[in-house]
Amino acid sequence: MKPSTRWVLGGVSAWVAVVAAVVSAQQPSGGAAPQGDKSPQQIAFERFQRAERVMNGSCSVSGCHTVRRIQTSAMDKEGWTKTVDDMIEKGAKLEFPEDKDILIKYLVQQHGPLPEGEGRAILLNTCTICHDLQRVRTRRATPEGWKELLEEMIFEGAPLSDENIPILLVYLARNFRPGQ
Length: 180
Hints:
This protein has nine helices and no strands. It is mainly alpha-helical and 180 residues long. Helix 2 crosses helix 5 and helix 8 crosses helix 9.
């Protein structure tokens, strides 16, 4: 990894840590808030926010690793459960007992598995520098559409080598096409 990339990742990690600390300080300490008359969307959004706080507070803020390690893993529920259990065994702390399930569900939803294929590693190591996996998973495009998007990303500074462009293009066009 280039020193400039390490510097950017370090800065982002520090920023995430500060935001997580501020958000955590603003949260009531009594566990989950009562659901009351909230809409399902509001409840889902609050669970999402809680899951992000758990991930940031238990994983990256604790100094064990940056979120980059999470962004490039793309595991299923079994893989994330094993990883979370391993991290807890190594000393990761969760504020509430229900945080483990919240965290695993979030990790599967936001950083879950991707189809196997030669371009998978390129996607995980390049595209996730700027984008989360949800952005990739929910986008559908024709091969021409993916080619245009990759050209735009390269213009914006995506670190894709000439030999990786066709591999990634085939992977995206095969796995994230319209109608899938």
